[in-house]
UniProtKB/TrEMBL annotation:
Family: Belongs to the BlaI transcriptional regulatory family.
Transcription regulation keyword on record: yes
One GO term of the biological process aspect: negative regulation of DNA-templated transcription
Molecular function terms from GO: DNA binding
Name of the molecule in the record: Predicted transcriptional regulator
Keywords: DNA-binding, Transcription, Transcription regulation
Organism: Olivibacter domesticus (Pseudosphingobacterium domesticum)
Amino acid sequence: MKVLKPTESELDILKILWENGDCTVRQVHEILASNKEIGYTTTLKLMQIMHGKGLVERDESSKTHIYKALVSRDKAEKQVLNKIIKDVFDGSAARLVMQALGNHQASDAELEKIKQLLNELENKK
């Protein structure tokens, strides 16, 4: 499996594509620029780099190119999380979970989902 290594800015663009579907550079840029200072040419260059990395595909059939995420949100999350677990938590998913739950407030619904997952994992043993 090819390991993707999107940068923070590339992840911002992927999130926009995941949430909004296929977009032009202008559409992505308008959303990005509403949250942070970024020039249009920077957005364009980032998306061209992402195309080269295989993170997005580009439909060039019309004058305005349309970009589509080639990696699913789930796959990207798993790969980024696996890298964090390996690099920061010495391979311990348990340490990551304890750190996350100890330092961040989870909603009642999230806690219920976590309990269900733990029960499922326990029942698999």
